[in-house]
Amino acid sequence: MEWLLNFILYFPENKIEYLYGFLQMVPFIILAVVAIIFFKKISRKEEEKANELLKKLSENEKKRS
What we know:
Radius of gyration: 26 Å
Structural class: mainly alpha
Number of domains: 1
Helix content: over 70%
Number of helices: 2
Strand content: under 5%
Transmembrane segments: 20-39
Shape: rod-shaped
Distance between the termini: 77 Å
Keywords: Membrane, Transmembrane, Transmembrane helix
């Protein structure tokens, strides 16, 4: 069982190996943040369009009444 834990939990003795893992992780984190910002902008634009349509619909309903 111990060999399984040693296989899954790998802690390198040479700590410079952590740097390589960090350098591989940084671009993915940056891309994730960019994707979130992109989706928020798109969502905000769609919300504004929906609000405009709701205003137009409410104006048309008032005219009909």
